[in-house]
Amino acid sequence: LVLVNDPNWRPTFKYHHWAISVVGAVLCVWMMFAISPMFALLAIVFCFLIFVYAAHNSHSVKWGDGFQGMKFQLARNVLMKMDLTQHTKNWRPQLLVVTGASISEDSSLKIDDPEILSFASQLKGGQGITIIGGVCSSQSSDFFSDGGPFMCSNFRQRIIDGQNEMKKVMQENSIAGFGRIVYTDDFSDGLMSLVQMSGLGAFQPNCVLAHWPQGWDTPGQQGQDQRARFLRLVQVAVVFQKVMMIAKGSSFPALSDRLTGNVDIWWIVADGGVLLLLPFLLRKHKVWAHCRTRLFAVAEEVCDDPAVVQRELETY
């Protein structure tokens, strides 16, 4: 606790120092084994069993958990010391999954694109940072009570229940990360909030994953709204220098599926190797483990030398 500067650690002894405690603990253990090695070992095992029992069966007390404060301080120290600039060799996708969401009257959460959550789980495999952002937009929602700055009690409870439901959805899809529901009157404003405010320090998402808009070719206002929302998402990702990934398809493999075949990459524009990295990460998941990767590079005869393009791709 002293080494991590935990504010919860406040010893009352004036001349306290962590080195004195370490020396005292080492001397105590040495004296135990010097007197009787067998009884010293039995005492250590007995104390360890008591600690395990207390950790799993004791009730929470009001003065808090010392380990929780230590973990918080360690995370804070590491986060403050991490360099925001990342070398190309160490680059890895930190996902921000953007999808529409809605909460019904019974506080159940509905994700507009549930298949993309399974794909995000397979892409990350429990590694790195994944943030699931659900934009809940409704122009008819009454966010605040009439004539006052306080939120309606019913809507406040729906917000709390929505955040809890998001955690359950992530657990069902085996996603290790964080989830957040953004409530807004306008979908574009929700996108801006998610992309700008998600993450912290070096743990900010560098990739935005979204589903190809369903019904984009529908005539009328509905199709126009879908296309406008999709274009705004791409614009926001480009402005804030995020890698934009679009998942398009009628169905995605479930976590219980085992795929075989080829993962084809069509290299049309040089993107720094992101297209090669994504199938590599997918193949680390058991769903895609038995698939092969094939690369097809498109080269123009006028300005591209096929031999040079092939040599550059082999260096990745």
TrEMBL record:
Primary site of residence: membrane
TM helices/strands, residue ranges: 20-53, 230-253, 265-282
Domain SLC12A transporter C-terminal: 114-221, 260-301
Keywords assigned by UniProt, alphabetized: Membrane, Transmembrane, Transmembrane helix
Annotated InterPro entries: SLC12_C (IPR018491), SLC12A_fam (IPR004842)
Subcellular location: Membrane
Membrane-related topology note: Multi-pass membrane protein
Cellular component aspect of the GO annotation: plasma membrane
GO BP field: cell volume homeostasis; chloride ion homeostasis; potassium ion homeostasis; potassium ion import across plasma membrane
A matching Pfam family: SLC12
PANTHER family in the record: KAZACHOC, ISOFORM G, SOLUTE CARRIER FAMILY 12, CATION COTRANSPORTERS
Official protein name in the record: SLC12A transporter C-terminal domain-containing protein
Organism whose genome encodes this protein: Noctiluca scintillans (Sea sparkle)
